[in-house]
Specification:
The protein is built from no helices and 4 strands.
Length: about 70
């Protein structure tokens, strides 16, 4: 495990492990906007907004997402 990603919305948190290439697996999230917080085992931390659309199909790639260090 390289780190952790926590998806947050409306006071609820949904954590998942982060792999060394940025991969993660999470299921049963409702569609909508979330804040993603990434923390790596090396101490890097950042946050970014992310939207999961409805559609009923699994998402297998989010593409490249920029993540700048949190203050």
């Amino acid at each position: 495990v390289f780190g952790q990603v926590i998806f947050s919305r409306a006071g609820h948190q949904f954590p998942t492990d982060l792999g060394g290439s940025g991969q993660f697996y999470i299921e049963n999230l409702e569609p909508g906007e979330f804040t993603a917080s990434v923390t790596t085992s090396e101490g890097f931390a950042c946050t970014f907004p992310i939207t999961f659309n409805s559609g009923g199909r699994p998402v297998t790639s989010l593409g490249t997402i920029g993540c700048e260090s949190a203050p």
